[in-house]
Amino acid sequence: MISRTESAAATRRALIDAAAGLLDRGGLEAVTLRAVGAEAGVTRGAPYRHFPDKESLLVAIGTRAWDRLGDLMEELRADAGLSGEEKLRSGVVALIDIGRSRPHLYKLMFSNPSADPTALARAAERSQTEFLAIVADLVGERDARRYAALLISAANGVAGMEVSGQLPNDKWGEVGAEDLIDTLVTMIAGSGRRS
């Protein structure tokens, strides 16, 4: 028999799943507590028992996305079968892939909720710490923060260009996201070897 705690946790997960689906299909405007409850197939009041407002539900979606990215970064970092360059490339491409496949979620992950502007930045800390460690393994501690920030900034730019249809493009010689990331990773790895 399922306990109340387990049932409540399952309902919370179902609500977050439903909200994430609505977000993916229709953006922030599509996510309302009423729509989420209907999508999850729960009573009208259930969403309100788990989330005081829409923003807290959105923070839960963003936090889950950062947690999953943190898990992936941790797995990449621990993978002895990958070179440092492969780990770095895979980490950056994983972030870009979220922007490609789930642009509304991607935007949410990098937002600052008004009730708690640092909530999602705190949620991002583990994934960013793991990513920073991957970079440090390749270029050393001294340059890791600079290169990690450069790569995350580049990933944001590349994802934005792809979503807006500017990559690949004749103007850039049909250069795609992976080409740009490969170039950056090669440059950074070369810099790390020269240090």
The share of residues in helices is over 70%
Largest sheet: none
The succession of helices and strands, N to C, reads HHHHHHHHH
Alpha-carbon Rg, integer? 19 Å
Overview of this protein structure:
The protein is mainly α. It is built from nine helices and no strands. It has helices spanning 4-26, 33-40, 46-50, 54-78, 84-101, 103-109, 119-139, 141-163, 177-194. Helix 1 packs across helix 2 (33-40), helix 4 runs parallel beside helix 7 and helix 5 crosses helix 6. The protein is globular, with a radius of gyration of 19 Å. It starts with a helix and ends with a helix. The model has no long low-confidence stretch (mean pLDDT 93).
